[in-house]
Amino acid sequence: MKVLLILVVLSVIGIALVVVGSIYYNKALTYEYYQFKNNKIPKVLDGKKWILLSDLHGKNFGKHNKILIQSIAQQKPEGILIAGDLVLKGKPDSCKEALIFLKALVKICPVYYAPGNHETRIAYQYAGIFQEYLKQVEALGVVYLSNKSVCLEADGEQVRISGLDLEQKYYGKFYENTTLYKDVIDDCVGPVETDFEILLAHNPTHFPVYAEWGADLVCAGHVHGGIVILPFIGGLISTTYELFPTYDFGMFQEKNATMILSRGLGVHSIPLRLFNKPEIAVIYFQQGRAE
Question: How far is CA 193 from CA 72, 109, 150, 214, 244, in A?
Fold first, then answer.
């Protein structure tokens, strides 16, 4: 009986620590700095600083994200890349908060926004609301890239930023995920055609296929850093319920492609973060051989 009581007390203490820790880590906004070196980086990006955001899910850091906006502005970026899930499925009001956030971001620098699975879900659940949302997003001057691309050019060199909007079947749980093939990406955004290709692809699981397609830099999110990050091990579980996912957070290399995978900013179905701070990813582009 005494042993059982001790186990119960320890369990209660453990749960309390997890809850308190999660409350802290959900609010502990931080910068993550990535030095991205590549011989192919053109002058329009060389020496520049960009911001990568993902998985806000309607969350607020301060009223209308005042703290988050100020933190981004302090970095004085040349551009902002959003790799999906500003909104939260089943919560159409999250579109209103996203618009307030985007209105502030475009005053800082150009914004390039690709959808994630939550944008796709809201588009299906609340078609009229989402279409109005997209109209207002584009009216703000945000470049919304749903299977579309935009080119930046300087001194005769081009960078293409493409946003991949995959069907829901490519976001299945780890035991039911549909295999993605290069031809699907070709059909969505077209084949590689410029000096340097940036692909905003929300789901990192398909990174080998993005590399096969020809991406130079992939910007992704979706897995929330593995939700719980275990020291010396990494992310514990992905948003597709895969234990110890191959792609959890940070930089990854596949052939000639690099992926920067953000831990994201918010939460949804599993409202938990532990040893896993919400991330503003700061990318420094530098021409040269990767070390």
Answer: 31, 26, 12, 9, 35
Residue 241 structure tokens: 């319920």
Listed in sequence order, the residues at least 6 apart from 266 whose beta carbon sits closer than 8 Å to its beta carbon are: 55, 56, 57, 58, 59, 85, 88, 278
> Exposed/middle/buried for 134, CB within 10 Å: 0-12, 13-18, 19+?
middle
Which domains, and CATH codes, for the chain?
Answer: 2-287 (3.60.21.10)
Contacts for 76 with CB less than 8 Å, ≥ 6 apart: 49
Model pTM greater than 0.85?
A: yes
DSSP state of 169: G
- pLDDT score recorded for residue 209: 98
Segments of the chain with pLDDT less than 50: 5-22
As a whole number of angstroms, the distance between CA 109 and CA 111 comes to: 6
* pLDDT for the residue numbered 1: 59
What tokens were used for 143?
């470049």
CA distances from 21 to 177, 182, 262, 268 (A): 32, 41, 20, 17
Q: What is the DSSP string of 10-28?
A: HHHHHHHHHHHHHHHHHH-
257-261 vs 30-38, strand pairing mode: unpaired
Q: Is 153 exposed, middle or buried (0-12, 13-18, 19+ CB in 10 A)?
A: middle
